[in-house]
Amino acid sequence: MSRAGRRSFKPRKKTLKLLIARLSLFSLGRAFQAAAALDQDIRRELAAWPDGYTVIMKIGPRGPAMVLVKEGGRMKYRGEKERPADLLLSFKHLEAAFPVLTAQIGTPQAFAQSRATLKGDLSEALRLIRCLDIVQGYLFPYLIKRRIMKKVPPLTPKKMLNRGVIYMLGLPLGRP
Amino acid sequence: MMPPYYEFFCPVKILCGRQAVDNIPYELDQLQARRPLIVTDPGVVQAGLLDVVIQAFSGAEAVIGGIFPDTPQDSSNLIVGQVARLYRENRCDALIAVGGGSVIDTCKGVNILVSENADDLMDFMGAYILKRPLKPFIVVPTTAGTGSEVTSAAVIANPERNVKMSFVSPFLFPDVAVLDPRMTMTMPPRITAATGMDALTHAVEAYTCLQKNPVSDAYAAAAIALVRDHLITAVTQSRNETARLAMANSALLAGIAFTNSLVGVVHGLAHAVGGVAHVPHGVANSIFLPFGMEYNLGRVADLYAELLLPLAGPEVFAQTAPADRARKAVSVVKDLKQKLYELCGLPRTLKEAGLPKDKLADIARTALGDGSMIMNPEAVDYDDALRLLQAAYE
Question: B59, B94, B126, B232: least CB-packed within 10 angstroms?
Fold first, then answer.
């Protein structure tokens, strides 16, 4: 067999990108849990969801995932283990997810560029997107928010406090 | 500006012109279908338009498998279930929608159920859930507005669960869209005006929303030029075949544009006004269009400036200073609204449309839950939506 015939056709694994994406989903999940407990706008939005309501954001058919479940009136981050979801937001593949998860583009642009599919009630998906916007408002500095959000919400003293709690307790410890 | 990435898809075969409906049996044969179920509404039957379609089967190998003539104005899963049962009982193998948006959306829902051998549409709710082609589906629009004959979406109410079910999938595209001037000739002036403004709104929003791309822009601009040249004629001369066909094309082109680029705040508000207060969609779009344009001026003035060319023609475009073109585009739309009001009483404001003022808060809240808001170039929150509604009230 020629050298060309012996060449491997297996695609290289994108280990670093996968790690970053996994870390990003983990951080987003923890931040969402904390923000959902602290932020009154998110609490008001999610009051409509019953206990057991499950939201999953995942990458491709076999990629990492972020599972959020409403338990005892609160949204809880439940890691990557998938389960039947009320809302399933799937990025088509890692390259579709990466710019979104690394805050290079915002959620509206992600949908405008057909990066993800959505299974579930579209009006509830909008509720999720509004909440994700608020979470991003806590996570990212102004320069990034200005790039990815249509309108950067003002950071009130209460929101600054919430941000502190999310960074000190939410992200490292998964609290509140 | 080139978007960093976009997708465009429109697989619908378009038949347009005189006697277009008579080609339906041939198209069924090409789709290997023999027993279509025709779905329509009482208005279409009363106008004699169903007879035009039935006549097309004279001497054809295909046989009409059944007719469902009772589609209501707002489609629901209950109606979809009834039609699906009729389809199965009559052993049909294709669907023909003859009517407006509600009939077409009903058929899309039926197609999901009969193709997936299912009974509950809720299982398929969302975007890109369907995984395989559906049964052959032909659409004969009888209005020149919604563009549903070339869209990949359907919205069907579920009154039992109090949900508006949205479905988006490339498999929802019809196989064939048939534009026959006979099918829109009987539209009264006010409905002609409202549906024409619906088409204009689709095109303007498609040109300015976040998912816009060069291909959808081309369709949108062409649609707007047809509205400019033919809407008034279609309203004032209902038997003018050229004007009717042009407006049907405008709706189709605008439909292709917006199904690929989506829409924005005008549609978000129009959907909400329709849902809460039952203002017809075309009327609502017509009312909100200039207000939505003014709201978005800060973000997309350059795009509205470009749209002045198809909106008003080359002379007006050339004579308008570049810095003034965006505002001129808005005023052209306002002038068109005024003209249509004078010709046929098309409401210019929510008050003229009979909307009670105490509904505005509810409508603003409902509008925020509409997917269209995501693609609007400017962010819209509750206060913004309420301000827009108040501006459009009187």
Answer: B59
Contacts of A121 in chain B (CB under 8 A): 125-126, 163, 165-166
**Structure-token pair, residue B49:** 């338009």
Strand order in the sheet with B126-127: A74-77, A65-71, A54-59, A87-91, A116-119, B126-127, B163-168, B153-158
Picking from B6, B168, B370, the nearest residue to A113 by CB comes out as B6
Question: What is the per-residue pLDDT for B85?
Answer: 97
For B61-98, write each residue's pLDDT tens digit.
Answer: 999 999 999 999 888 999 999 999 999 999 999 999 99
In CATH, what number is assigned to the domain containing residue A151? 3.30.1050.10
> Mean of the per-residue pLDDT values for chain B?
95
Q: Is residue A10 part of a domain?
A: no
* Chain A nearest C-alpha distance from B274 (Å): 16
pLDDT of res. B243: 97
Task: Inspect the interface and report whether the beta carbons of A120 and B378 lie closer than 8 Å.
Answer: no
B194/A5 Cα distance (integer angstroms): 65
**Are A114 and B6 a contacting pair at CB < 8 A?**
yes
Give the residue from B154, B277, B2, B23 showing the smallest Cα distance to A122: B154
Domain membership of residue A175 (yes or no) is no
**Considering only CB atoms, which chain B residues are within 8 Å of A88?**
126
Residue B337 or residue B125, greater confidence: B337
What is the C-alpha separation between B181 and B177, in angstroms, rounded?
A: 13
Q: Which CATH number is associated with domain B187-391?
A: 1.20.1090.10
pLDDT value of residue B105: 96
Contact B211 A151 (CB under 8 A): no
Q: Do B295 and B384 meet the contact criterion of CB atoms below 8 Å apart?
A: yes
Separation in Å, CA of B317 to nearest CA in chain A: 30
* The two structure tokens encoding residue B139: 């659409």
β-pair partners for A75: A70
Domain boundaries, chain B: 13-182, 187-391
Does B381 sit within 8 Å of A151, measured CB to CB? yes
Q: Which residues of B touch A93 (CB under 8 A)?
A: none
User: What is B13-182's CATH number, 3.30.70.890, 3.40.50.2300, 3.30.428.10, 3.40.50.1970?
Assistant: 3.40.50.1970
* pLDDT in the model for residue A4: 59
Contact: A112, B375; criterion CB under 8 Å? yes
Please report whether residue A88 resides in a domain: yes
Q: How sure is the predictor about A122, in pLDDT bands with cuts at 50, 70 and 90?
A: confident
User: Does residue A139 lie within any of the structural domains?
Assistant: yes
Indicate the number of domains in chain A: 1
User: Domain range for residue A141?
Assistant: 16-170
pTM recorded for the entire structure? 0.92
CA dist., res. B198 & res. B284, Å (int): 8
Residue A2 has pLDDT above 70, yes or no: no
Closest Cβ opposite residue B210 in set A108, A118, A121? A108
